[in-house]
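PT: before anyone asks, these are the final sequences, not the draft ones from last week. 225 residues across everything. Please model them as a single complex and drop the result in this thread when it's through.
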Amino acid sequence: VAYGITRSEGDAEEVVQDVFLTLFRKVESFEGRAALGSWLYRVATNAALIKRRGKRHQAEVKLEDLLPQFREDGHRDSDRTWLLADWSQAPDDELMTEETCAVVQEAIDALPEHYRAVVLLRDMEGLSNEEVAAILGESVVSVKSRLHRARMALRELLTSHYASVRAS
Amino acid sequence: VDTITCREFIVDLLSDYVESILGPEAIADVERHLAECAPCRAYLATYKRTVTFTREA
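LR: through. Structure below.
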């Protein structure tokens, strides 16, 4: 989690050291392992977000630019570009290349930080909406909404990537 | 008859549809829409694979 957010091994190590120092000081106040697990996630996520905020190397994408557009009647234009943009039927070995992994990773890195934290905790760490909400101190509705917007943005970035691969 | 728009499907229902937490009426609405809308079928398929890739990346 710390590395996923900070994208720096040195920063992630510092975050983890700080988290465990805090844990060492407060360990007697924990009642059970479940509470300790979510506390570790919460402290590590927040510490990593703070560290990243001070050292942002990469421009974050504007999420709104990557969300789907609709006509006034709420439908989408059903021109051929939609069907050409459907890369879902291509075989895994064609899609899931090292290059694609790097593209996905870069796309996640480029998300605004609170969106990235939700994707990391929910899709990469496999936590539930409720667990992520508790860690980030937000409502489940807010976590679900941000996760969906982040996934739509990532889908758009992958679609652009495959379109450029096909064109080349 | 299609009862929902592409916007309602993608913005409001897609996420819960993928997580299998929609009620039966909403599922019926979504599936009716998908049967008639190729762009939304493509969107759903690429959205699902995006989630899979994120988990594996």
